[in-house]
Amino acid sequence: MTIGGAGTGDGDGAGDGGEGLKALLPQEAAQRVQSLRLVEGTATLVLDASGLPPAGRAAMEAGVRTALQGAPGVVQVRVAMMADKALDTGAPKGPRIVAVGSGKGGVGKSTLAANLAVALARAGRRVGLVDADIHGPSQARLLGTEGRRATAHEGKLVPVESRWGVPALSMAHFSQTGQAIAWRGPKISGALLQLVDAHWDGAEVLVVDLPPGTGDVQLTMLQRCPPAGAVIVSTPQDLALLDAARAVELFAQSKVPVIGLVENMAGYVCPHCGERSDPFGAGGAEAAARDMGLPFLGRIPLDIAIRREGDAGTPTAAGDGPQAAAFAELARQVGRWLDEHP
Length: 342
Ligand SMILES: Nc1ncnc2c1ncn2[C@@H]1O[C@H](COP(=O)(O)OP(=O)(O)OP(=O)(O)O)[C@@H](O)[C@H]1O
Ligand SMILES: [Mg+2]
What we know:
CATH class of the largest domain: Alpha Beta
Bound molecules: adenosine-5'-triphosphate, magnesium ion
Strand content: 15-25%
Order of helices and strands: HHEEHEEHEHEEEHEHEHEEHEHH
Number of helices: 11
Distance between the termini: 33 Å
Number of strands: 13
CATH topology of the largest domain: Rossmann fold
C-alpha cells in the first residue's frame, strides 16, 4: 500500500480516482477529508477528526467504510483519523518521537536510526529506540542486543538496555531470530503502540525506525502517536528520491514536520585506499531537498565499515572515525531542531 500516486509514476496522485470517491462519502466525512487516494485497489483516506468524541470518530469511520466498500476499483479501505494532539486522548504520552522513514526499502533507515540514536546519546540526550519494523526487525542486531528478551512491569514493556546508552524495543526482543512474524492490521498497530508506550523513563527523544513505505505502521503512528518530526532517508538515485518524496508527502499530509532529508550511501569509500567515488551519482538528495523546500541534513557515505559494524552490533556512531563524525553532525542538527521546536 502506498500513498501518493505510487504505481502511476506521476507523484502527485492526480487522476487516481480520489475525487470520484469523495463524492460517495457522507457529507460530514467529505468535509473532513485531508487526503483521499486510490492506488492499486486500496483507498486511503486521512480525515481530520478534530473535536470529535471517540464515538463520533468510530461512527464516521464506519460510515466511510460502508460508503467506499464496493465502489468501483476499491478492494480495500484504509482510514486514518487525525486529531489535535491535545484532544487525542487515545495517544500514549511520553517522550517526543523522531520517526526515521523512507519511501523505499533498503536505503539504510535502520542503520541510520541506530546511529542517530547512539549519536544523540553521545551528545548527552536521553534517548530510546523503537524498532517499528514489526515484520523485519533489525535493531537488536544493530545495537548488539540479539538474544536478549524484553520484560514487562505493571502492564508495560521494559526496554532492553544496550551498551551504547540507548535502551531499545524491537520485535526481535520477543521472537527467535529469523522467525517470521506474519501479523496484519490491528495486531501490528497493537504491537507498535506497546513498543512506544513502554517504560521509557526519563527519555526525551524516541527514535522510531519505520519499515519501508507507507503502510499500517505508518498510519498507526500518525494516528495514535504522532511524531514531533520525521527524518527522511534516501540514497542518491532518482528512483529512491521519488519514493522519498512520497514519504515526505505522507508526513506533510498528516502535519508532521519533516526535520530534513539525509542522503545515505552517498559516494563509495574504498576500504583499501580510502578514496571516495560516486557510483550512484552525487548531490541528488540535496537538490531534491531544495526542490521540496526541506532542510538537507547531510550525507553518509557508502562505507563497508558501516555495514560491518552494523552487523557486529557495534554502531559506527559509537566509534571515532570520520563516519562517526558524520552521524554526530546529523544528531547535532536533529537535536537543534528539537530544541527549536519545543
Ligand atoms: N552508509 C552505508 N554504508 C554501507 N552499508 C550501509 C550503509 N547504510 C546501510 N548499509 C547497509 O545496507 C543494508 C540495508 O541497510 P538497512 O537495513 O539499514 O536499510 P533499511 O532502509 O532499514 O532497510 P529495510 O527497508 O529493509 O528496513 C544493510 O546491510 C546495511 O548494513
Ligand atoms: Mg530497516
